[in-house]
Amino acid sequence: MSNQPTLLIVDDESGILDTLRILLKKEGFEVTTAQGGKAGLEAIRTGQFDIVLSDVRMPQVTGIDILQAARDQDPMTPVILMTAQASLQTAIGAVNAGAFYYIQKPFANDELLAILRRAAEFRSVRVENKQLKQEIKRRDRGGSTRPIGKSKRFLDVLKLAEQVAPTESTVLIGGESGTGKEVVARHIHYLSDRAEGPFFSINCGALPENLLESELFGHVKGSFTGAVRDKQGLFAAARGGTFFLDEVGEMPPSLQIKLLRVLQEREVIPVGSTEAIPVDVRIIAATNRELEEEIRRGTFRSDLFYRLNVIALDLPPLRERRDDLLLLVEWFLQGMANQSGTEPKALSSEALDAVMVYDWPGNVRELENALEHSVVLTRGNLIEPQHLPERITRRRKEPLVADRSYKNPALDVIERAYIMWVLQAEGGNKTRAAEVLGIDPSTLYRKLSRYEESAAPVE
Fold first, then answer.
1. Mean pLDDT calculated for residue range 434-440
2. Structural domain includes residue 263
């Protein structure tokens, strides 16, 4: 909750609304008013309030309707009902329906202020309790939400992530599969002002286009075969929280246009509807593709890229953060021990050597899976090389160029070997490799294309 509690006042009498707005603004509340129950429902649908103060007796939409709508939107919102015709029965009914308090008109200003301040404190305590429970759950899963690592390049990325976390800026996280992009996204969420809100994630490449559209934006009843009822999309459901779009580079072009609308207009149009629904969500996207290359190919929209790429984070692959391997091994083994209620297992020196020299093409996710595999196969407390997956202990040396010796290699052969070596050192990232080589990316692409076409190095 902000320093100024946000308050929605609903009443069908404009004079009461004006009086309460002036009074409560002076007392430090951020006040929004709605004249009548219908306007109150619309305000609840489109806004977010710490407290709701509503008259009970209003035509068409009553205070009880306002109470139910506010609690459906956010169960932690205290709702105070007021009426000029109080009775014990209506008071009991209001409290049973979930009202925080029931006050009779006319009331003293001090009485109303005392109730509102108790409601603000109640709201604050409930939010803090929810955050504490979330933190306890996270610790039960293995500790702090802060990603593990001490290598300089990784810490530089993490520092930037923590710097932008309190802002509302859209973040684009790049990196190979398995580098921990969702872990960083969750860390940003938990450090943001939206931490009390939901964190939703979806893999844009895991669903067919029509199903992905319905999941993201929702649909109305009858919009397609099987749409037997209205469905709220994930953008709307993530209200007040963070939405993580994993592998956004896999999103079909038709949905890229709709995502652009979300970023520009902060609203969605469900499938089969013409009515826009406002959304209040921070977007963090991730990709293992070079989106600028996808733009050149025409498979990704440049305007969407620039909307997503407000803050860019580039997670390094695990092979470029060898200093973090031992930390991660200890972290995962301790977490697995916590889950099973046993003592943590350890790697023998030979097993650790194999882990340290392996390239980990699947990155942190592959490391975690390999350690789980080893823990399951190890009967004692010491993990030996034979307990590791075979691919990790099998030593392979792949030549940078064709396996052919040259007494006096031609310049083309040396150039090719050097280019492939740089490309390998940069983890296959062609843009960074071109920078290291000091050539234009288009030149690098032409050379690589020529290498692929040739059956053997040019002599």
1. 79
2. yes
Residues 298 and 309: beta-carbon distance below 8 Å: no
Average pLDDT of the chain is 85
Helix/strand/coil for 272: coil
**pLDDT score of 262:** 93
Domain, as residue range, for 445? 397-459
| Angle between helical axes of 209-217 and 253-265 (0-180°, round to 10) | 10
Q: Do residue 354 and residue 441 come from a single domain?
A: no
Looking at the chain, the whole-number percentage of residues with pLDDT higher than 90 is 47
End-of-domain residue from the set 266, 284, 316: 316
Residue 254: CB partners within 8 Å, gap ≥ 6?
209, 213
Assess whether 351 and 372 both reside in one domain: yes
> CA-CA distance, 185 to 199, in Å (whole number)?
9
What average pLDDT does this structure show over 312-316?
96
Kindly give the interhelix angle for 325-340 and 363-377, rounded to the nearest 10 degrees: 50
Instruction: Please report the DSSP string for 245-260 in residue order.
Output: EETGGGS-HHHHHHHH
Tell me how far CA of residue 300 lies from CA of 235, 289, 293, in angstroms.
Answer: 21, 11, 9
Condensed to tens digits (0 to 9), the pLDDT of residues 115-154 reads 998 888 888 776 666 655 555 445 444 445 689 999 999 9
Burial class of residue 51, CB neighbours in 10 A (0-12, 13-18, 19+) = buried
The CA-atom distances, in angstroms, between 229 and each of 220, 224, 225, 308 are 7, 11, 11, 32
In a domain, 436, yes or no: yes
Nearest Cα neighbor of 198 from 89, 316, 74 is: 74
- Contact between 54 and 65 under an 8 Å Cβ cutoff? The reply is no
Q: How confident is the model at residue 88 (pLDDT cuts 50, 70, 90)?
A: low
Q: How far apart are CA 402 and CA 455, in angstroms?
A: 9
Give the pLDDT score at 74: 82
Measure the CA–CA gap between 216 and 206, rounded to whole angstroms. 13
Q: For the segment 95-116, what is each residue's pLDDT rounded down to a tens digit?
A: 666 788 888 888 889 889 999 9
